[in-house]
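Attaching the record inline, Q. Sequence:
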Amino acid sequence: MPRLKAYAETWPLREVFTISRGSRTETPVVVCEIEQDGVRGWGEGQPNPRYDETQESALAEIEAVRAGLESGALGRIGLQSAMKAGAARNAVDCAFWDLEAKKAGKRVWELAGLPQPQPVTTAYTLSVASPAEMAAAAARNAHRPLIKMKLTGEGDLDRVRAVREVLPETPIIVDANEGWEIPMVECFATELKKLQVQLVEQPLPQADDAALADVAHPVPFCADESCHTSGDIAHLKGRYDVINIKLDKTGGLTEALKLRQAAIDVGMDVMVGCMVATSLSMAPGVLVAQGAVVVDLDGPLLLAKDRDMGLTYDESGQVHPPEAALWG
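Structure, as predicted:
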C-alpha cells in the first residue's frame, strides 16, 4: 500500500519580492511524498494567503486524505473530488503523477498522452518598486528575452515608461495583482499599448472583473486570481482574452490539463505561470506550458538557492523540461 509523507519547507529569496499585496524575503512550500513498492513520487505546492492558505492549513488538508490514500481507496482521480483545488492538492496530485511515471518506467507526458515537451521561453519578474528602482532592475536583467513587471496602481505608467526607456525592444508584460480600480483600466491599458506592453494580468479585483466586459481591450487582459479551474472558463469568456494557469490554483497537473483544453475550446489563449517556488513546483508546469502564448515559470530564478537537480534555465532565457531525477 502507498505511504504518505508531507512536510513544510521555507526557501529564502535572492532579494525582497514585492507585489501589490505586500513584500516577502522567503517563500513557504509544502512537499508531498508518496512511496509504494520502494518507488517514491513527490510534488510541491506553494500555499498562498490570497486564497486563505498557509503551510499549516495545506498540511492539514493533506493529512485529511492520508487514510484513503494509504488504504489504496483514494487514487489520483478520486483526489480531484476529495480535495479542493489549491496548493495542497497540487502537491499530492503531482506526487501521484511522479509515482505513476516511475512505476511505469515512462515519463509523465507519455502517461498523459502529450507530445514530448520542448524548452520554452520564460518571463523574468521585476517586483514592484519606484520607477528608478525598477529601471535599474531592468538594466540588470537586460539579457532576459521577456520581462514581467509587477504593478500596483498609482504610478504604474511611470514605472513602465522607466523600464521601457531602459529596454526599448524587450517584450514586456505587466501584472497588477488586482491592484487597479475600474476608472484606471481603459486609460492605463491605452497608454500601455503605446508602450508596447503585450499583456495585462488581473487588472481588477476578482469581485470587480465583470466590468472588463464593458471596456476596450487595447492590450489583452489575462485572468489570474479570477481563474482557478476549468469550471471558471464559462464566466471569464468576454471579460478576459487569456487565462493564467498555475498548478497551485488548479490543484495539480490533472486539472491544469483540463483547464488548458477548456480555454482552447472556447478560443481563449493560455498563459502558464507560477508561484515563487522551487524547480519541483515548476516541473509539471513546463508540460502545461507547451504552446502557451506566455510562459512565466521563473520561480527558481528568484530564490537564493534552488533544489538539487533543478530545472535548467539557459542563457537564451529558456527553461528546459525536467530530468526524471527531479520529477516526472
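Residues 87-104 form the longest helix (18 residues). The chain has a mean pLDDT of 96.

More tomorrow.
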